[in-house]
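Moderator note: this is an archived Q&A kept for reference. The question asked for a predicted structure of one protein chain; the sequence and the answer are reproduced below.
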Amino acid sequence: MKRIYLKITLLIIAIAFIVVGFILEQLNQKEIIVAIIYALGFIVGGFFTLREAIAYLKDERALSVDFLMFIAAIGAFIIREYKEGAILILIFALSHILEDYAIFKSEKTFTSLLKIAPTEATLINKDGGEEVVHVHDLKIDDIIKVRVGDQVGADGIIIEGNTALDERTITGEFVPSEKGVNDLVYAGTINVTSTILVKVNKDPEETVAQNIVKFVKEAQELRTDRETLINKIEKWYVWIVIVLALFVMFVTPLLGVFERVEALYKGVIVLVVASPCAFVASVTPAILSSLSYGAKLGILIKGGIPLEKARKIDTIVFDKTGTITEGVPQVVGFESYHITHEEMLRALVSIEKESNHPLAIAIVNHFTDVKTIPVTTKEKAGMGIKGTIDGDVYLVGRFKMESCDKCRKETEQAIEDGFTIVNIAKNNMMVGIVKLRDTIRQEAYGAIQHLNESNISTHMLTGDNKQIARNVVNELKISSCASELMPEDKVNEIKKLKDAGKTVMMIGDGINDAPALAISDIGVAMGSSTDVSLEVADIVFINNQLDSADKVIHLSKRMNNVIIQNMIFSVLVIIILLLTNLFSVMSISIGVIGHEGSTILVILNSLRLLRIRKEDKDMVK
């Protein structure tokens, strides 16, 4: 921003010189004095233009638009059009300031994301003392203390204390998340309520926060095919303009088309109006504005390439668990047989409380009002947990057990309906079942419906059984699904769709989705994901919202429309001004205003993409 302020200061000084020159010109002062005053305005206003032209020439070994405009201004001075030459550089400098401002506004959101990775942490050393260290010095299994108001220094697991963490930088969720012992915490999140001790479980260079920083840096550096093409065109086009101007200046008089003085005048105008300033500014500000818009909505896009592709997406493939569903089992019902509900639940919760299995945790968290009793337990991997209460042996899980006809029928029906079943037996006789389901994300209903209405084909891939998959597909009205898949099977499904001519966006959240994300036209990682490498994903929904898929596609189409508008408008202006100059009468002033005005309008048109639409305001906190 300091650079912009300096440019504005020089612009104001240049304006002052031009105003003084104009006044002296009206007072019929000596031409040399007027020329010197205008020249001072030219030098001050064109300082950055010349510097950037020289830097581009040095780095790219090619002439740029800046160089062309500088030559045009000098040409105006040579033919004694001092005021027009100074104004040309003045307006060109103004368009540069506006372009810098567009880039600054566009990158501002990204720059704030670069600050989310913490730099320091409080390490508990071997002697039990505390020392503040740089996060890069932390190692796996180190213990760090996180006080209220501190950023968590590294990804890890809470080993002592309970608190609430502000995780908005990672997940986009603005409500603090309650955390306790054994819960995962992420670097860059902020401790809100109580001091905790965290055991580092990931290299500080590979934390979620650091990966987001790397992702953002790549997003700023990557250039689209259109941007690269325009840069190539610019290098050659500048020479074409120079050759055309020289032709008009020196060849047309020989052919008797223009008088010598008129030819010089028109040649300088050619340098001005044929310059591709607006055309060059058609793409990059629009892309950066769009990337910034997405970031404000909690959608990180790795540069303009995936954003340009998004408008062509006609098929979206979803992983199920953790993407369409919450990824956390929820108890939705239970039945008891041969014993009372109270007895069955008391035994169930008392036993499950001794287990860390996700289903056990879901059951304990659901039946919070059930009073537990002393129990002796023994867990058997892959089967469940065995507990003894007052001499009775209870089995909870997938153990073989005897069951009545009613038990078998209701269990089979529950499985057919797509529920995950936990069986409970007392002394080897089934006495109850608990039905659990991975609940569908609330926003998934509207997101899928909107995609269907937009004629975008939706597919779901999952490792779950067919019935569970079919239930989700039917409830959400997803076009099709494939179930009981391994990671390599998901890759094959994506290949089939691409071979059929589909342009595919894949949305997933687990490490098993990484191969499918990589092979898709656009790979998307959900914000809740901690396993998917951001190097594989093209886009990350840090807001964790499925309807972001539709917003990305719509944003891509808006951006493309703006770029096309900019390109057509800039080319038409060049053609009209050039033809008017060669076949009619045009002053340098009109050429300057028309040409540089088009550049300013193109940049302003791109800046429209920064404005948050009404329908998206609820996503911007």
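Archived answer notes: The chain has four domains: 2-111+220-288+556-619, 120-206, 290-325+440-553, 329-439.
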